[in-house]
Every structure is written in C-alpha cells, then in structure tokens.
C-alpha cells in the first residue's frame, strides 16, 4: 500500500524538512517487508491556492485516483500509536492501494473536501504549525511500521 502526504504549503530546507525526509526514508525501509510504502509527499503551493475552496481543488489534483483519504483535522479522532498502526494494517489487508493523508492550509480543509474523507484524524486539541504537523505525521507513519514489524523503536 502506497502512502501519500498531501499538504498545503511547501517546506524548504531546514530542520523540519530534514526530519520529514529522515522519517519517510526510515518508513520506506521498514515498510517494504510489510507491503507498506513508499510514502510520497505532494506539496501544494499555497500562494496559488489561498482559500479553503481553492486549496480543496488543488489537493484533489494531487490525490491518487481512488485513494482512501484520511483528513488531518482538529475535529478528528485521536489515536494511540498502536491503534494507528493497526489502522494501517487493516487498510493494507483490505486491499487499499493508495492511502492519502491530507493536511489543509492555515484555515483548515474545505468542509466539502473534509466530508470526502474516510476518516478524520487529530493530533489533539492543541493547534500545531503545519510544518510540525507534517513532521509528527511522518514520525507516526514510521512508528506504525516499526510497531507492525515488532521493532523496539516503540516503547509502551
């Protein structure tokens, strides 16, 4: 199952970019034996799409056809890392070929686009900068692969 992070905004060189690249590389290595990966990033330039409606259209263009959509949204459910890993395994085992995690812009996702999602996922009630949310998502994707592989990376 291929994973996709579809996000509004571009992250340039810096610590956030380095962390995302590192976690996604680790995931690609760990996930291969689990039939997970690669994880591909799709960045949408927020200068060209500056309203939630325009961002929804731009995000729809980068989504793989027939992808299962997981919207990162403050209204979403919060998942423990083991439960998230179980979700990934269930989608993979159900034959999902493309799983897309979508991160909207500063004003969130367009309600119509959000309604298209199979699930809303939240990192909690705190507000996180989009760059850090992307880092946290990349790390949780990697962590899920290590949990499924039985690696000691995740400790309870």
Question: How would you explain this protein's 3D organization?
Answer:
The protein is of the alpha/beta class. The protein has one domain: Alpha/beta knot. Helices cover 43% and strands 21% of the residues. It is built from five helices and five strands; from the N terminus they run βαβαβαβαβα. The protein has a five-stranded parallel β-sheet. Helix 3 (81-93) links the parallel strand 3 and strand 4 (98-103). Helix 1 (15-32) runs parallel beside helix 5 and helix 3 (81-93) crosses helix 5. 32% of the residues are buried. The model has no long low-confidence stretch (mean pLDDT 95).
Strand content: 15-25%
Q: Give the strand tally.
A: 5
Outline the low-pLDDT stretches. Answer: none
**SS element count, helices:** 5
Integer-rounded radius of gyration: 15 Å
What's the CATH architecture name?
A: 3-Layer(aba) Sandwich
Per CATH, the superfamily is SPOUT methyltransferase, trefoil knot domain
Under CATH at level 1, the class stands as Alpha Beta
Write the CATH fold name: Alpha/beta knot
Major sheet: 5 strands, parallel
Give the N-terminus to C-terminus distance in angstroms. 26 Å
Give the domain tally.
1
Strand order of the largest sheet: 2-1-4-3-5
Shape: globular
The succession of helices and strands, N to C, reads EHEHEHEHEH
Helical coverage, percent range: 40-55%
Based on secondary structure, the structural category is: alpha/beta
Task: Let me know the average pLDDT.
Answer: 95
Core attributes:
single chain; 156 residues; Alpha/beta knot; 5 helices
